[in-house]
């Protein structure tokens, strides 16, 4: 198969440098504990600026071979193993380390950059797969950050409701990232309870009985924290929970960037237009796309949710972000500058 129009598997293996660099920083201690976060939020934007953009899309006849190419899948599985080992090791370091509060805080942020920036991204990829064990691997990654319900909310909720006001994961124009993150976390959690209740009602079962999976999903974090506490101590357990909070906060910051201000129009009462490339922001920056498994080709992911990451295409109709996700997340932290940069890029929706 010619690879002239696709990114080969090798660049995606470079993403393993993020957990490994973070791990090295944790072993070195002191200010080195910030290495993971530094690579994620400073290193990647700099490398994006040097490497430029990648606008190649696979040809239709290449997609089947691409999806079957095992090398693209193996890197996901390696990441799951590396993240699990990293979490075990950092729990050991937290339990025995004599770090200052700021060194500990930097370590939590660096680990969260790995488990959120990469771990949840990979879990997102795997949660869309039809292979049960791949989905289970994704659920394991989500469990490690206490966000198991995301898999159902994303696949059954967000993909259906994206671009509509009642979608928790669609950021409204003018909404700050801080308000959005709180709203999205709370509304997504409540929405999954509602979806599970409706599923059980349709089966003639008790809506909030023991078969409601949210009871289990909500119990995973306390159970994991309890296990960490037994093995490594209560302080380490709280730090383990903290890295999960950093991770899913980072996830919601990514959600903020992906659909900010983009709305699907109501074409008649109760009926909205079909999702199109214009309803998701796209970033073609080569390095961050390799590290994030082409998550930044986000419109194509919504158009064909079962398409594996290596086969995602670019769309000229999609509004283009001036930088990749890591840089845009930093920009979003300063709402006035965010609005000044992004609002002129939002496509103008013709009046009905």
Set out the fold topology:
Layout: H1 10-13, H2 17-28, H3 35-51, H4 63-68, H5 70-96, H6 101-127, H7 132-143, H8 150-161, H9 177-202, H10 213-232, H11 234-259, E1 266-268, E2 271-272, H12 286-291, H13 298-303, H14 325-332, H15 335-342
Antiparallel strand pairs: 1-2
Helix pairs in contact: 2-3, 2-5, 2-6, 3-6, 5-6, 5-7, 5-11, 6-7, 6-11, 8-9, 9-11, 10-11, 11-14
Percent range of helical residues: 55-70%
Sequence of strands across the biggest β-sheet: 1-2
Taken from the alpha-carbon principal axes, the silhouette is globular
The overall strand count is 2
Structural class: mainly alpha
The whole-number mean of residue pLDDT values reads: 94
Quote the distance from N terminus to C terminus: 46 Å
The helix-strand sequence is HHHHHHHHHHHEEHHHH
Give the C-alpha Rg.
20 Å
Low-confidence stretches: none
Describe this structure in words.
- The chain is mainly alpha-helical and 352 residues long.
- The protein is built from 15 helices and two strands.
- The protein has one domain.
- The protein has helices at 10-13, 17-28, 35-51, 63-68, 70-96, 101-127, 132-143, 150-161, 177-202, 213-232, 234-259, 286-291, 298-303, 325-332, 335-342, and strands spanning 266-268, 271-272.
- A hairpin with a 2-residue loop joins β1 and β2.
Features:
mainly alpha; 352 residues; 2 strands
Short description:
With 352 residues, the protein is mostly helical.
């Amino acid at each position: 198969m010619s690879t002239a129009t696709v990114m080969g598997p090798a660049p995606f293996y470079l993403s393993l440098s993020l957990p490994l660099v973070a791990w090295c920083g944790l072993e070195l201690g002191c200010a080195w504990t910030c290495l993971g976060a530094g690579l994620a939020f400073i290193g990647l934007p700099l490398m994006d600026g040097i490497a430029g953009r990648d606008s190649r899309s696979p040809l239709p006849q290449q997609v089947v071979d691409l999806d079957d190419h095992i090398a693209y899948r193996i890197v996901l599985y390696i990441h799951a193993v590396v993240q699990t080992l990293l979490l075990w090791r950092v729990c050991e370091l937290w339990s025995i380390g004599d770090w200052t509060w700021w060194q500990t805080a930097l370590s939590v942020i660096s680990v969260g950059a790995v488990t959120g920036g990469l771990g949840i991204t990979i879990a997102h990829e795997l949660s869309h797969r039809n292979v049960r064990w791949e989905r289970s691997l994704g659920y394991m990654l989500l469990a490690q950050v206490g966000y198991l319900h995301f898999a159902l909310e994303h696949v059954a909720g967000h993909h259906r409701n994206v671009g509509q006001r009642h979608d928790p994961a669609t950021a409204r124009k003018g909404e700050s990232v801080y308000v959005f993150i709180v709203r999205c976390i709370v509304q997504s959690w409540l929405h999954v309870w509602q979806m599970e209740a409706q599923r059980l009602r349709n089966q003639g079962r008790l809506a909030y009985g023991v078969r409601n999976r949210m009871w289990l999903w909500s119990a995973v974090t306390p159970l994991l924290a309890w296990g960490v506490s037994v093995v490594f101590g209560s302080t380490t357990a709280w730090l383990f929970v903290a890295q999960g909070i950093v991770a899913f906060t980072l996830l919601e910051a990514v959600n903020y960037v992906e659909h900010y201000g983009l709305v699907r129009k109501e074409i008649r009462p109760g009926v909205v237009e079909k999702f199109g490339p214009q309803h998701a922001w796209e970033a073609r920056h080569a390095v961050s796309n390799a590290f994030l498994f082409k998550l930044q080709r986000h419109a194509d992911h919504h158009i064909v949710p079962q398409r594996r990451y290596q086969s995602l295409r670019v769309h000229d109709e999609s509004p283009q972000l001036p930088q990749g996700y890591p840089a845009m997340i930093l920009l979003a932290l300063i709402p006035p500058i965010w609005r000044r940069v992004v609002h002129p890029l939002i496509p103008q929706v013709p009046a009905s």
